[in-house]
């Protein structure tokens, strides 16, 4: 089952231009430029899953830069990786407080922003990319404030068939997910997320 409050998936790579090129070849769908994250050194491209969920491709704004940004572990990547998933709770403060009471700390809520290609500044709040979140299996939490959601703009579309996770210790992951009140199928295996997408080129898997 896919979490109904899914906001977006994060597919990260060490070279954003190559990542977009490879994804377009694989899927037959070309992502559109979202913009640059202010002060983060990253740039993203977007595709819609339909409704209010989407796929974000992210990497260094300058792929040739020697120092890669640490966001979503980009500075450690040699190949693309499905690095994270992001959930939009009804009340982000209440979700963080309850989760801490139940034993999982998703981190403090902090501000982020992105400048669109048209020059518009979008501002929102997100729990930080701290630790590895069980290899990305524990989601980040987002609050878009007054910013228009990315899916309100025309985006190329493909279908998310399924999202699941793997981890050497599934019970520990399930405990964190329960504290956050989110759903993700988790099986035993090397830590990581797996998304199955339907595309014009057929069904593909992102890991």
UniProtKB/TrEMBL annotation:
Q: Which Pfam families match?
A: Glyoxalase_3
Where on the tree of life does the source sit, at the highest rank? Bacteria
User: Gene3D superfamilies recorded for this chain?
Assistant: 2,3-Dihydroxybiphenyl 1,2-Dioxygenase, domain 1
Annotated protein name in UniProt: Glyoxalase-like domain-containing protein
Q: What is the source species?
A: Prauserella marina
């Amino acid at each position: 089952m896919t979490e109904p409050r899914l906001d977006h998936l994060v597919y990260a790579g060490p070279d954003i231009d190559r990542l977009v090129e490879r994804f377009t070849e694989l899927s037959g769908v070309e992502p559109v430029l979202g913009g640059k994250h202010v002060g983060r050194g990253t740039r993203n491209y977007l595709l819609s899953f339909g409704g209010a969920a989407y796929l974000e491709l992210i990497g260094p704004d300058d792929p040739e830069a020697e120092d890669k940004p640490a966001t979503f572990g980009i500075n450690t990547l040699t190949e693309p990786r499905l690095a994270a998933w992001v959930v939009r709770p009804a009340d982000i403060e209440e979700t963080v407080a309850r989760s801490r009471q139940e034993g999982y700390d998703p981190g403090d809520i902090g501000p982020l922003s992105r400048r669109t290609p048209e020059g518009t500044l979008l501002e929102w709040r997100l729990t930080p990319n701290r630790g590895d979140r069980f290899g990305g299996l524990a989601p980040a939490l987002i609050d878009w404030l007054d910013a228009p959601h990315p899916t309100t703009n025309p985006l190329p579309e493909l279908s998310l068939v399924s999202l699941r996770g793997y981890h050497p210790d599934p019970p520990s992951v399930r405990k964190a997910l329960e504290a956050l009140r989110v759903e993700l199928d988790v099986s035993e295996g090397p830590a990581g997320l797996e998304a199955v997408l339907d595309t014009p080129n057929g069904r593909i898997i992102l890991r």
